[in-house]
Amino acid sequence: MKWRVLAMLCAGVPALAGALGCSSAAHDDERLAGGAAGISGVGNPSPGGGANAGGSASAGGGGVTEGGACVEQPAPQRTQGTLLSLSLKPSLTNLPFVFGQPNALADGGSLVALNLRFYVSDVHLLRSSGEPVAVDLVAESGVPEPYGVHLFNAEEADSATLRLLAPSGDYSGLSFALGIKLSCNQQPPAQLSDPLTDVSQMTWPHTGGFLFLRYEGRYTAGSAGASGASPTVNIPPAVHMGGDIRKELVPGVSVSGTFSIPESGRLEKALNVAMDELFKGATADIDVSDVAVGLLSAPEAVAGERLRRQLSALHVFVFAP
Amino acid sequence: MAKRSVLATVTLISLAPITGCSSDAPALRNEAPSLIDSTIPAGYPKGTYSERAPADNALTLERATLGKRLFYDPQLSRTNEVSCGSCHQQQYGFADPREVSIGVDGRTGTRNAPSIVNAGWGKTFFWDGRVDSLEEQAGQPIENPLEMDLTLTDAVARVAADPSYVEDFNQAYAEAPSSSSLQKALASFVRSVVSGSSPYDRHLRGDDSDFGPQRKRGEALFLSEKAECFHCHPSGSLSNEGFFNNGTYTAGGDTGRQQVTGRVGDIGKFKVPGLRNIANTAPYMHDGSLPTLEAVIEQYDAGGRGDPTTDPQLKPMALSSEEKADLLAFLQSFTDDALLRDPRFAP
Questions:
Q1: List of chain B residues whose C-beta atoms are within 8 Å of the C-beta of residue A189
Q2: What are the start-end ranges of the E strands in chain B?
Q3: Does A14 contact B at CB distance below 8 Å?
Q4: A189 and A201 in contact (C-beta within 8 Å)?
């Protein structure tokens, strides 16, 4: 079943067959999907852990697992809890990164973000003891978000808040998947609802699947840059992470920071999205040629793959002071 | 699922005789029996056709029929000379064959009227996306001084003076004509204009009888990282409903989306149009500045017109003449001839 979409693409678009790996090898689950330990190389959470009735989740084995079916209306982890509201705030060199407007750079140049969006799913809070607690991503109404997925879109202010329904207690951090699980990634967008439709601007039809993170921007060099001096941050024009249905690629993110969730009311916190860290990962000098071949050879896809592999070593997501 | 089937059945029955087509004809354009019950063109977001309408304006025969009457009624312009249908002409894919649309007293704006086909799936409307509902969209051209130049209050007064209109409004909305019901009726008609039987649609449903090798090569190129059309025009709906600067904007021109958001980064961005019937909707781009699809392909092949605000994903492609011909053949597969002639949507 997991290969249905790939098979459709292989059969329906012969020109893509070779690039998609439409050979017998492409059906080798072990090679392409099963080897979780070697897939992402980052400290992933465990989407497939599954919460028990008490609201805790198993820690999993370190690699991303398939995480079950792609369900539009997932059963809630819990019906009662406290709302943890996390505001996502893009930043650049510790200053607010304003979408669509020129952001000053150290070299005197500027950067205008034209597109910035990413998926968040499979959120766990970490008890002070280290125990992960699976929590629901909920809409403002309190019901779980479709597919358990949240789409951050810098163009839409409403999308800048992650709402988590969580049990009270003391925590030392949180973790989440920066993307969507494989079972959703392999579904045709036309058979899914928001935020997993073409309107998300995250669908990638030539390979199938969705992007997990998408960034595009316009960098204008300042006098230092124009004279040849390097800007403080290496800035790629675009970063497209994900977009491949052949593997479980979704990387995990861990964010450290203590907080206490009260038994009632709500807790509001802010999570900075450090664009300079994101750019650092996307421009890292690492070899990704084993993945970035054929249809994934575009510079933005290479940048995305570099970011994906570097993510666990970066501090893209950080609690705001 | 059962609920959906019932809804779809009601929709089919209720919309069938909009303009007197035979009672056994499917209500909306779609040739695949498996899709008739949902009337959704292949590749469009799931959900029945009726479910695309807001709860307070459920789609009914009476509402769509009233909307059609209003759509083609020049009474809705100050001079009684311009109707919605003046700029959204069926034979041109419900777009405007003129470079920019012409309103009352020969007034011209800066934009070419976009097609309304399959607008029921739209997220925002107008080239700059300044409204997010068809109902709200429907009122703006009536009041725009460059278009129909009539207040909604005056438009309502005109139709309210016609007893047959009063009866139609009563049938559709159980109320006398109002600006709200007038806009809702127009939105209902627009929502009923669905294209889903082009060779491309049939191809998506597995019928390649009119989708030969050249079109398939064009499709593969369209979906490739070389042409990169798919970034904005994904398979199926052919629009991601986003806003991009596709290289048409040049300094001093219409800044598009930026006028709505105020963002520097939105200068020159316009809404990505769906491409259904694109071969019939010339001229192209928001300003109607490209007369042919060949010119469109040439502009994209050049990576736009060179303005620094152009989306960075647009780069010169160096397409061969064969590749350009393949792309053109693919674009021509979006033509739904039946829709262009369908009497249910005609004046």
A1: 45, 234, 236
A2: 243-244, 270-271
A3: yes
A4: no
Tens of pLDDT, residues A202-223: 987 666 789 999 999 999 888 7
- How far is the C-alpha of A136 from the C-alpha of A76, rounded, in Å? 6
User: How far does the CA of residue B1 sit from the closest CA of chain A (Å)?
Assistant: 14
Q: Are B263 and A101 inside 8 Å of each other by CB?
A: yes
Q: Count CB-CB contacts under 10 A for residue A321.
A: 6
Q: Is B74 on the interface with A (CB under 8 A)?
A: no
Burial pattern B111-144, b for ≥16 Cβ within 10 A else e, equals: bbbbbbbbbbbbebbbbbbbbebbbebbbbbbbe
Q: Which residue has the tokens 């798919």?
A: B230
Domains for chain B: give ranges and CATH numbers: 199-337 (1.10.760.10)
Which chain B residues have a beta carbon less than 8 Å from that of A297? Answer: 225
The pTM for the full model equals 0.83
β-bridge mates for residue A120, sequence order:
A150
pLDDT surpasses 70 at A163:
yes
Report the amino acid identity of residue A171: Y
Q: What is the pLDDT of residues B96-131, one digit of tens each?
A: 999 999 999 999 999 999 999 999 889 899 999 999
User: Which of B203, B226, B228, B231 should one mutate to test binding to chain A, selecting the residue with the greatest count of A CBs within 10 A?
Assistant: B231
